[in-house]
Fold this sequence. Notes:
The strands form five sheets. A five-stranded parallel sheet has the order 2-1-3-4-5, sandwiched between helices. A five-stranded parallel sheet has the order 7-10-13-6-14. Strands 8-9 form a two-stranded antiparallel sheet. The protein has four domains: 133 residues, Rossmann fold (3-Layer(aba) Sandwich), CATH 3.40.50; 162 residues, P-loop containing nucleotide triphosphate hydrolases (Rossmann fold), CATH 3.40.50.300; 70 residues, Helicase, Ruva Protein, domain 3; 53 residues, Arc Repressor Mutant, subunit A (Orthogonal Bundle), CATH 1.10.10. It is built from 18 helices and 16 strands. 44% of the residues lie in helices and 15% in strands. Helix 2 packs parallel to helix 3 and helix 13 packs across helix 15. The structure holds adenosine-5'-triphosphate (ATP). Adenosine-5'-triphosphate binds next to helix 7, helix 13 and helix 15. This is Sigma-54 dependent transcriptional regulator. Keywords: ATP-binding, DNA-binding, Nucleotide-binding, Phosphoprotein, Transcription, Transcription regulation. It comes from Chitinophaga defluvii.
Amino acid sequence: MTVTQPGKILIVDDDVDVLRAARLLLKRHFEQVDFEKNPQKIPYLVSNFEYDVILLDMNFTRDLSSGKEGFEWLDRILDINPEIAVVMFTAYGDVEMAVRAIKAGAVDFVLKPWENEKLLATIQSAFNKRAAKKEKTAPAPDNLLVGKSPAMQQVFDTVSKVAGTDANILILGENGTGKDMLARHIHRESLRHDKPFVSVDLGAISETLFESELFGHVKGAFTDAREDRVGRFEEANGGTIFLDEIGNISIPFQAKLLTVLQNRSITRVGSNKLVPIDVRLICATNRNIQHMAAQHLFRQDLLYRINTIEIHLPPLRERQEDIIALAEHFLQMYRDKYKRPVNSLHESLAQQLIQYNWPGNIRELQHAMERAVILSQGKVLQPKDVFVKNPASADETLNTGYNLEEMERNIITQAMKKCNGNITEAARELGLSRAALYRRLEKYNL
Ligand SMILES: Nc1ncnc2c1ncn2[C@@H]1O[C@H](COP(=O)(O)OP(=O)(O)OP(=O)(O)O)[C@@H](O)[C@H]1O
């Protein structure tokens, strides 16, 4: 069985028999294969459809054998989109012309009459080159940081200035505002981009495992230490370490972390050998860390170490310009993932999304859109498809009925309120892991 892959191919040739035969062959391997007899249509087609590969005849009837017309069209295509892979097709193939075509920007050529296998292999390799380029130039949809509001533009501006330096960065923002995503973005933009990015959720590490997790241990250091273990700092060596929830570590561990940052070296638990560490440090927290420092809950000297550059990610309600752009971004992402026909937001839904205050920020919007796309029926997403919490219902008090789910929902709501929305603290309060709490917040649409 032949498997088709998601490539878009265009064949341009003035010989209809050639078009039909080549299309028949390629159609079995690529999702979309279009053909065009009239080269004058090339600019329109290239501008309006995102082709990956164009198989282009060199000799149209106007000028049968010099290849001149083919070269003109090759130039036009690359003017419009220099990324398209163009393969030249010629019945008068001589090596000199083929070399000229490649110098002029074509990726390869095929002689007519062709052998099916050769034609297929050439188009496949052109498509692979194009796919590799696409991957390099466009980030995967899950990596794309959406943000056109002035606040986000300012963030991008700061990032472009500091990403290439080794400055320590502290990212501040409520839960779900994109701190983790921004840290990864900074790493991708940095000189260390081909080295490891290691993310550590400090809020999720128990006090007993803190040191061994971050700095590693040697065999026999404690009862469960059956093997030597590399810590997260060593794993990140040469790259970036992202310490999430930095505001949640206790004072003794703050001191240990400070020592490591000052000495630029770690010692594995149970060893006294210093291991030099070269990492770029990015930290994040949803807490008011300046305030914590003022109250002696966070060491001021550690704060100075980690916040050479501070980036504040504002909550979604303060960057309403981004709400629709993000909603549309997630709509595209999930419509492709779940193969749904939906492709736009109804005007009244757009209004509703803008008016809502998004306490869970982008994570909440993302989940709301995912559910909505799955449940959607037509091409336009309607207000009824999107379930967002009614802000008024957030004030619910514990109800005395015996509906377990309802009770669980209420208890979680209260814990979240008590902890001012701090997931780590609320999870601790409820005796749940952060992941378990996230699952429940999602389940109850909180
Ligand atoms: N600017 C953005 N563009 C597109 N998606 C985004 C953006 N910001 C965040 N997201 C998405 O929103 C979700 C939450 O983002 P992320 O995990 O980075 O937030 P966070 O601030 O680190 O959350 P927490 O404090 O709860 O750990 C992720 O799925 C992420 O992909």
